[in-house]
Design a protein that fits this description.
Blueprint lengths: L2 H6 L4 E4 L3 H5 L7 E2 L9 H5 L5 E5 L3 H12 L4 E6 H9 L3
Parallel strand pairs: 1-2, 1-3, 3-4
């Protein structure tokens, strides 16, 4: 899987697992916010999103936890690390 290609070509859904407050301070264009602590309760919503899920947060720690949990539940996803990295990769297509 070419993670950069998936991000550039918007082949999946960018899910930012930071808090609502962090997300409101800046985020990847087109991303959705599902805070890490809400992942388990929003599984139906996550299952209906375009796959793979591109998970990001501030540094990659929380998105790593989310990726592990979601993968364990059969959801195609990967940890993309910092939302700033995803934003940079996405901006290179413009």
């Amino acid at each position: 899987m070419d993670k950069e290609k998936i991000i550039k070509e918007k082949q999946g859904t960018v899910v930012d697992v930071r808090t609502k407050e962090e997300f409101s301070g800046g985020h990847v264009e087109g991303s959705i916010n599902i805070p890490l602590q809400e992942i388990e309760n929003r599984m139906d919503e996550l299952k209906n999103l375009k796959k793979p899920l591109v998970l990001c947060c501030a540094s990659g720690g929380r998105s790593g936890h989310a990726a592990q949990f979601l993968s364990h539940h059969g959801i195609d996803c990967f940890n993309a690390g910092s939302w700033l990295d995803v934003n940079y990769i996405q901006s290179k297509t413009l």
